[in-house]
From TrEMBL:
<protein>
    <recommendedName>
        <fullName>Fibronectin type-III domain-containing protein</fullName>
    </recommendedName>
</protein>
<dbReference type="InterPro" id="IPR013783">
    <property type="entry name" value="Ig-like_fold"/>
</dbReference>
<dbReference type="InterPro" id="IPR003961">
    <property type="entry name" value="FN3_dom"/>
</dbReference>
<dbReference type="InterPro" id="IPR036116">
    <property type="entry name" value="FN3_sf"/>
</dbReference>
């Protein structure tokens, strides 16, 4: 069965009975059961109600309070209520399954440089000097200098999720995919996922309620002009 194992208890209820059904191994919300009845007698009825909506376990976790620039090893294991914890992800990694490497250095994109001087040196040239920003964990290996004449116009995109009660989705920009993003991710979580993409320098994200879901408004605040379409996969 696609619903796995269930446990059922029965108790008397006036002149009838009620059966309490728990879906013991199915993760997430189960579709409502449809009742069909051939009961006989006076005032018979058969009803199905949902007492507790199932919620799928999350498969993501943010590890906090780490030190910038320090490498950390990460592993995950799963537990059964009655049996305990099984093998860790390190067991799978050792035979080439999963993400490699197991170790990750705590780092983010560098902070913004500071322009210290900007001076015209000819009729067609200006000299620019800036100070190096904090590397935030990884050495800085290049800089990008941009100039333009148009008034800043930042691209704004809206990601809409509707009807999702659990699970995750991924976003794609210029051929690069984000990590899985929870169906109810906060604005900060979606912003963090996008800013891990090589082609994204800085975005601002806000989240608002939508019909049966959420809208995330994404503003590419360091990308002046048109930004490539954002793809989605759920």
């Amino acid at each position: 069965s696609t619903l796995g194992y269930v446990t059922v208890t029965r108790a008397a209820d006036g002149f009838g009975y009620y059966w309490d059904v728990t879906f013991a191994t199915f993760s997430g919300d189960v579709p409502m059961l449809v009742a069909g009845s051939s009961l006989t007698g006076t005032g018979t009825s058969l009803d199905v109600t949902e007492q507790t909506r199932g919620v799928a376990p999350r498969h993501d976790h943010v590890i906090g309070s780490l030190v910038t620039g320090v490498p950390y090893d990460v592993r995950v294991s799963a537990a059964n209520v009655d049996v305990g914890y099984g093998a860790t992800t390190q067991t799978e990694q050792n035979i080439g399954i999963g993400v490699v490497p197991l170790q990750e250095t705590v780092a983010t994109q560098p902070s913004a440089p500071t322009i210290s001087s900007l001076e015209a040196i000819s009729s067609s040239q200006v000299a620019l000097q800036f100070t190096a920003p904090s590397s935030n964990g990884n050495a800085i290996d290049s800089y990008r200098v941009e100039w333009f004449t148009a008034v800043n116009s930042y691209e704004e995109k809206v990601v809409t999720q509707s009807g999702g009660l659990y699970g995750s989705f991924m976003l794609e920009l210029d051929g690069e995919w984000t990590v899985p993003i929870a169906y109810d991710a906060s604005a900060a979580a979606l912003e963090h996922a996008l800013e891990q993409l090589i082609g994204v320098t800085d975005v601002q994200v806000t989240r608002s309620d939508a019909t049966d879901g959420y809208d995330w408004t994404v503003i590419f605040v360091q990308e002046v002009g048109d930004v490539s379409p954002v793809g989605v996969e759920d």
